[in-house]
Amino acid sequence: MIERQLLIAGNWKMHKTQGEARVLTREILRGLSYGLRAEVMVAPPYTALAAVAAELKGSTITLGAQDAFWEQQGAYTGAISPVMLADAGCHYVIVGHSERRQHFGDSNRDVNRKLLAVLDAGLTPILCIGETIEERQAEKTLLVVAEQLKEGLAQLPAGSRERVVIAYEPVWAIGTGLTATPSQAQEVQAFIRSLLRELIDQAAESTRILYGGSVTPDNAASLLSQPDIDGALVGGASLKSDSFLKIITAAG
Ligand code: PEP
């Protein structure tokens, strides 16, 4: 069986000035225990990327961005390209987060273009997918997730298959304090892996599928013990070093 290294990723969303980001990064670095098996990533806002990159230099924590536009450069006021993010020291880029879909109108097609551009720049995309509460209640969870996954991964170059990370984030669990139970999350994530087997063949076995949605120090260990949960995308609890460090510790 292929062993997948757990990834604990902090999505700081629209929080933290440069100074605050530096302090949080230093606290996380100071609190990391030796012999950590999980990979840790933080995704600050664009304005704090350089500051956090400087703090992370020489450490094992990787840097991520929360979104990217699909063009490399040009007249796209306000946009940031994957090439710029690579230049800023990023390794990961989150694409398709439900807050981007909800507030900025990102469609599955947009998400796909972003994902391909991120790969093209040599970076690793974290593709977020997940259903709303209405879709879950209408028993459309698997349908919605399948559509987001298939359209998000469309035209994926064969050589890039191994690089994609998926994050299953039920929209009703993001920032709400409601968490999918470990078995609810496992059910959907096992389904995602079975679909990945059709879409990307053997690479599905090494693809990391994260869970996101109100992950806390209290629920992290039980979620991470599930066979198809290969890490966590953490929003609120990644904004304070003590809660983020406890989640990292739960990952082992
Ligand atoms: C997220 O932003 O991806 C997220 C899961 O947020 P939270 O942990 O706050 O629910």
Key words describing this protein structure:
about 250 residues; binds phosphoenolpyruvate; alpha/beta; 11 helices; single chain
Relative helix content: 40-55%
H/E element order: EHEHEHEHHEHHEHHEHEH
Strand content: 5-15%
| Main sheet specs | 8 strands, parallel, barrel
Task: Lay out the secondary structure.
Blueprint: E1 7-11, H1 18-31, E2 39-43, H2 49-56, E3 62-65, H3 82-87, E4 92-95, H4 98-104, H5 108-120, E5 124-129, H6 133-137, H7 141-152, E6 165-168, H8 182-200, H9 203-206, E7 209-212, H10 220-224, E8 231-234, H11 241-251
Parallel strand pairs: 1-2, 1-8, 2-3, 3-4, 4-5, 5-6, 6-7, 7-8
Residues 11, 13, 169, 174-175, 212-215, 233-237 line the site of phosphoenolpyruvate.
Describe the structure.
- With 252 residues, the chain is an alpha/beta fold.
- The protein has one domain: TIM Barrel, CATH 3.20.20.70.
- The chain is built from 11 helices and 8 strands.
- Strands 1-2-3-4-5-6-7-8 form an 8-stranded parallel barrel, surrounded by 5 helices.
- The relative contact order is 0.15.
- It binds phosphoenolpyruvate.
What does this entry show, briefly?
With 252 residues, the protein is an alpha/beta fold.
